[in-house]
DNA sequence: AGTTTACTTTCCAAAGC
DNA sequence: GCTTTAAAAAGTAAACT
């Protein structure tokens, strides 16, 4: 009887320690990505839900913590790409993506696809581009999306190409390399999306 | 308009069977030309047939898995070749061991571009998985028939998980009618 | 700048770790 | 869970020319 009781306390303590570790990891990753406190709190709430639903079993705490932060950013409309969260996590990108899909499905998070426009303010700001370029990029994204160009394309690559096109149109040119660095995509992807977009825009 | 069902093409058939007899894979690997056997990596011996093209995984238990065939007839033909090869090695194999098709992968074309964003929201986020950052296809799990469809922006699709060719036809019909109901196929 | 190769996703069986 | 096998879809990445 005493042994069972001690075991319960031990598991409870271990669970408590694991939860504290997960929450501090979320905080650490969020800090290095410059994610606001309100979003970290959303991530912590999702993590606790995942814990309550017993979704952590068979998965790494760090993996679930990272996925939870990724999901929270999307829910709050300030997405970070898997590339970006993977850069501050000790779990690889593929694992984070798989865990995110599992958690989102099990908790019925019903996440809508990421809108490329949600990346433009942050990317433009990191590139020191004007509001004018940002507005132009937004317009390019809206127009080309209406023409059906977005299906299947990565939101970061799509946003990066629109920003590249907008920077040219507004005479504030940034090189493909500079934009690729900020958006964490390759120059080849920017070229491919850019060609389609300017053609659809009739430029 | 061409019926999307007419564009269905079987791309891969997976089937299992068995010769009801234990095998010494080490000696089979020695005698069978072109056999790949690395028990440290995987317990099955890999044997590839050329006509029709397929890959057979042969296990110590005598059970066999055949993949890569383009039709159910090809699976039977490939396995017939495998059975004959084993017989050449003085291994007893019945006339026609039971062959069970486990999975059929098909491709098809709806003939129009698809707005995957609208489909993801329209068909309801519950049976749909669409993460273009991770994969360009939208994953749609059907209950009847019980298959999984991957829909692409081009209107092309992949259907997998079915046990018979008809499953893919039924799946295409359901997908088409559901997209039409939502006004997402036009 | 553009090409080639390789990897991402879905499915399934097998035996063993 | 993982390992291996096969195949399609289309996008992206890495490594070259």
Automatic annotation (TrEMBL), chain B:
Q: Does the keyword Repeat apply?
A: yes
Pfam family name, one: TBP
SUPFAM superfamilies in the record = TATA-box binding protein-like
Which of UniProt's keywords are assigned here? DNA-binding, Repeat, Transcription, Transcription regulation
What's an example GO BP annotation here?
A: DNA-templated transcription initiation
Q: Which InterPro entries match?
A: TBP, TBP_archaea, TBP_dom_sf
Any one GO molecular function term: DNA-binding transcription factor activity
Which segments carry the sequence repeats?
Answer: 10-86
Entry keyword annotation includes Acyltransferase: no
**Where on the tree of life does the source sit, at the highest rank?**
Archaea
Purpose of the protein = General factor that plays a role in the activation of archaeal genes transcribed by RNA polymerase. Binds specifically to the TATA box promoter element which lies close to the position of transcription initiation.
HAMAP family (UniProt xref): TATA_bind_prot_arch (MF_00408)
Protein family (similarity comment): Belongs to the TBP family.
What name does the UniProt record give this protein?
TATA-box-binding protein
Recorded source organism is Natronorubrum halalkaliphilum
At the highest ranks, the source species' classification is: Archaea, Methanobacteriati, Methanobacteriota, Stenosarchaea group, Halobacteria
The gene name reads: tbp
């Amino acid at each position: 009887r005493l042994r069972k009781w001690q075991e319960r306390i031990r598991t409870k303590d271990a669970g408590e320690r694991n939860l504290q570790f997960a929450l501090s990891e979320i905080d650490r990753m969020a800090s290095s990505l410059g994610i606001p406190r309100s979003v970290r709190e959303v991530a912590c709430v999702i993590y606790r839900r995942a814990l309550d639903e017993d979704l952590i079993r068979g998965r790494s705490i760090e993996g679930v913590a990272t996925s939870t932060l990724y999901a929270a950013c999307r829910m709050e409309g300030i997405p970070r790409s898997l590339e970006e969260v993977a850069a501050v996590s000790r779990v690889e990108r593929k694992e984070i993506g798989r865990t995110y899909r599992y958690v989102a499905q099990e908790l019925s998070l019903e996440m809508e696809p990421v809108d490329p426009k949600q990346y433009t303010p942050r990317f433009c700001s990191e590139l020191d581009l004007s509001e004018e370029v940002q507005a132009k990029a937004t317009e390019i994204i809206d127009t080309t999306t209406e023409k059906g160009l977005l299906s299947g394309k990565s939101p970061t690559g799509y946003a990066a190409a629109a920003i590249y096109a907008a920077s040219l149109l507004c005479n504030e040119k940034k090189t493909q390399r500079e934009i690729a660095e900020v958006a964490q995509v390759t120059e080849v992807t920017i070229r491919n999306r850019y060609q389609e977009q300017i053609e659809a825009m009739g430029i | 308009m061409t019926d999307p069902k007419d564009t269905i093409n079987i791309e891969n058939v997976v089937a299992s069977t068995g010769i009801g007899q234990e095998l010494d894979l080490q000696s089979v690997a020695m005698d069978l030309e072109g056999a790949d056997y690395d028990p440290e990596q995987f317990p099955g011996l890999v044997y590839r047939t050329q006509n029709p093209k397929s890959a057979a995984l042969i296990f110590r238990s005598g059970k066999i898995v055949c993949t890569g065939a383009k039709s159910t007839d090809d699976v039977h033909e490939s396995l017939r070749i495998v059975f004959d090869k084993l017989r050449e090695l003085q291994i007893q194999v019945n006339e026609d061991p039971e062959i069970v098709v486990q999975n059929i992968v098909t491709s098809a074309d709806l003939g129009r571009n698809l707005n995957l964003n609208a489909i993801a929201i329209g068909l309801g986020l519950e049976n749909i998985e669409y993460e273009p950052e991770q994969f360009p296809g939208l994953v749609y799990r059907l209950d009847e028939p019980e298959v999984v469809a991957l829909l692409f922006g081009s209107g092309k699709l992949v259907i997998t998980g079915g046990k018979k060719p008809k499953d893919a036809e039924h799946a295409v019909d359901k997908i088409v009618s559901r997209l039409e109901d939502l006004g997402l196929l036009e």
